[in-house]
Amino acid sequence: MNVLITGGAGYIGSHTCVELLGSGYGIVVMDNYSNSSPAVIGKIESITGKKFPSYQCDMLDYEGFEKIFKENKIDAVIHFAGLKAVGESVEKPLEYYRNNLAGTINLLRLMKRYGVRRFVFSSSATVYGMHNTAPFTEDMPLSTTNPYGTTKLMIERILTDLCHAERDWKVALLRYFNPIGAHQSGLIGENPNGIPNNLMPYIMKVAVGKLPELRVFGDDYPTPDGTGVRDYIHVCDLAAGHAKALEKIDSLNGARAFNLGTGKGSSVLDVVHAFERASGVKIPYRVTPRRAGDIATCYADCTRAKNELGWEAKYTLDDMCRDSWNFIRKNPD
């Protein structure tokens, strides 16, 4: 099977490329490098010892996108590409709706045109909103608190409607929780452009002296230590989840949602202390007011993924912190 991976040079995309190449799939990578680097392509090839076609292309460039379908036999698509910063989405909603929705519609139009009907979508736990109680299950009511999350929910709806209209589509909606960690080689990991939006890259920049301290948003939540609790999952476990979804995709009827998480919650300070254990580096932090839209506790019920995809997370929080530290030590810049 030959798989187009949009956003394949990004954090989760690059680890999924490695997983699929190791599982015998052929891949074609598309990325516009707005939040990644072309150097990642060489690193994937170095880890796997395999070459593959890659294209610098934007989702909004329909003709450029079509070139990929013309030049390659595509059997399935894993769709990671999109803008993904929650805070930025609140400041630039039109940019997020235009990029994430119009770009995905371009992709789906091309899939229809070229007879590709297998689709794995990179969704998010943000679609569970603020009013559900953890652990989150796939059949809970859905809502969102920011434009980024709304684009994920709207794309899920577009895919569901498409599957109702055209019964030959097979779609896995992978709702993942909080990916951290890095490939054990230390060659690829999370390396966002600019100030990090996510906890682990922020901790890593503090650990290597790029930032003076970590900001902890709120310590007055109803959680064991007052800080927000999230379901942190190793990015390599997440990549394996995408491979499992592809393996099982032909057995799906229409669009089927799956949570990918560990099923366990860890607080911000749990992560800080685990990272300190892994690195031997003290992480100074300062508590600041809560962020609007943040909920106290968020973790997954992953029973469906275990039963239907044969997937479950293997790595612990200490493993995630060890691999993150290995990555930042090998890539301090």
Task: Please give the structural blueprint.
Elements (H helix, E strand, L loop, with lengths): L1 E5 L4 H12 L3 E6 L7 H10 L5 E3 L5 H10 L4 E4 L6 H6 L1 H21 L4 E7 L22 H19 L4 E7 L1 E3 L18 H9 L6 E4 L11 E2 L1 E3 H14 L5 E7 L5 E2 H12 L5 E4 L8 E2 L4 H7 L7 H14 L3
Helix pairs in contact: 1-2, 1-8, 3-5, 5-6, 7-9, 9-11
Folded structure, characterized:
- By secondary structure, this protein is an alpha/beta fold.
- It has a domain at 2-182 and 233-261: Rossmann fold (3-Layer(aba) Sandwich), CATH 3.40.50.720.
- It has 11 helices and 14 strands.
- The chain has helices at residues 11-22, 39-48, 62-71, 86-91, 93-113, 147-165, 199-207, 235-248, 268-279, 303-309, 317-330; strands spanning 2-6, 26-31, 54-56, 76-79, 118-124, 170-176, 178-180, 214-217, 229-230, 232-234, 254-260, 266-267, 285-288, 297-298.
- The strands form 4 sheets. Strands 3-2-1-4-5-6-11 form a 7-stranded parallel β-sheet, sandwiched between helices. A 3-stranded mixed β-sheet has the order 12-9-14.
- Helix 2 (39-48) links the parallel strand 2 (26-31) and strand 3.
- The relative contact order is 0.14.
Task: Put the structure in a nutshell.
With 333 residues, the protein is α/β, with parallel strands linked by helices. It is built from eleven helices and 14 strands.
